[in-house]
Fold BlaI/MecI/CopY family transcriptional regulator.
Amino acid sequence: MEKLTNLEEMIMKCIWDYGEEIPFLQIGKELKERYGKEYKRTSIRTYLFRLEDKEYLKVDKRGRNAYVYPIISEKEYRKEKAEDILDNWFDGSAKELFTALSEKIPKSEKERLKGVLDDMDFI
């Protein structure tokens, strides 16, 4: 899976959160509303073509309108991103990753995570 730029990630997040195919013009509105960023339609279109080339989404033109839908799910992307962070920043050590995150995780969440770890099937 090819890496995404920050703006490409923001665009994909808007598309995933929309929950269905998103009208092209809605993407600009979502970026402005969520991130306070305003982009020209031509810029957004350029990024959509890049994301289509990277096989993250598909642009479907119907008459004068274009609709965008994801090919890669957010869950798939998160998994890939987490593996990349684990490998590149923590040398594959989940312990090091959890240690780095431990200060940011609220106590109630830590207890829930202990349960998740206990429920994992280890071979």
The helical segments are 6-18, 24-35, 41-53, 74-90, 94-101, 107-119. The CA atoms of residues 90 and 98 lie 10 Å apart. The chain has two domains: 6-70, 74-119. The longest strand covers residues 57-62.
